[in-house]
Design brief:
Elements: H1 3-6, E1 15-21, H2 25-28, E2 40-43, E3 49-51, E4 59-60, E5 71-77, E6 84-90, E7 97-99, E8 102-104, E9 109-111, E10 115-120, E11 123-130, E12 137-144, H3 149-152
Parallel strand pairs: 1-12, 3-4
Antiparallel strand pairs: 1-11, 2-12, 3-5, 5-6, 6-9, 7-8, 7-10, 10-11
Length: about 190
């Protein structure tokens, strides 16, 4: 047997990609402590926190309008499943956090969908989960967006679509039903 055949199986690692946007980043540099585009390992039993207190938070936001601890992430495995997930918990007493338009007050938590937008104040964060198998740790990879995430990305529409595939929003703005016309009429 060759050393290649005897080598252990390489396991994949779950990675949480987070793309950050703030309209005044250029002038205020609130993300200057972030290590962008570099994967960072986090032990599975750690709860990385985001906020302005560098003694408590792993990811520091350099902004006095951000809470000392804004939010935390928890990596976990679903019961009776091999699927790994992330949970986000709002730790700010003053600022509500939204995840895909679900509002979280202080100490509220929610599972992160595999792709979602997290907002608080003027901050917009696109979170995307890359699945993996490792139970020892996960990775984070932070990115910076120069344009607003809410305008740049299109998440699945929450509006119902009729069986013929036409969205109700494509009708006239007055809410009038479309009128049938004869193609021979002028």
């Amino acid at each position: 047997m060759t050393s290649f055949e005897e080598a252990g199986t390489e396991e994949t690692v779950t990675c949480l990609h987070m793309t950050f946007y703030h309209p005044y980043h250029e002038e205020k540099m609130m993300f200057r402590c972030f290590n962008f585009k570099k994967r960072e390992q986090v032990r599975a039993d750690e709860m990385p926190k985001f906020g302005r207190d560098s003694n408590i938070c792993r990811y520091n936001l350099m902004d006095t309008r951000v809470s000392r601890i804004q939010f935390a992430l928890q990596f976990y495995r679903k019961m009776n499943s091999s699927e790994f997930c992330f949970e986000i918990k709002n730790l700010s007493k003053k600022t509500k956090l939204t995840v895909n338009q679900t509002e979280l007050g202080y100490l509220n938590k929610i599972d992160l969908p595999w792709k979602c937008i997290i907002c608080f104040g003027d901050y917009q964060i696109l979170a995307e989960i890359e699945e993996g198998e490792s139970v020892e740790y996960f990775e984070t990879c932070l990115h910076l967006s120069e344009v607003p995430i809410l305008q740049e990305r299109c998440l699945p529409s929450l509006q119902p679509v009729t069986e013929n595939g036409i969205s109700p929003s494509s009708f006239s703005p007055q809410g009038k039903s479309p009128m049938e016309t004869d193609e021979n009429e002028s």
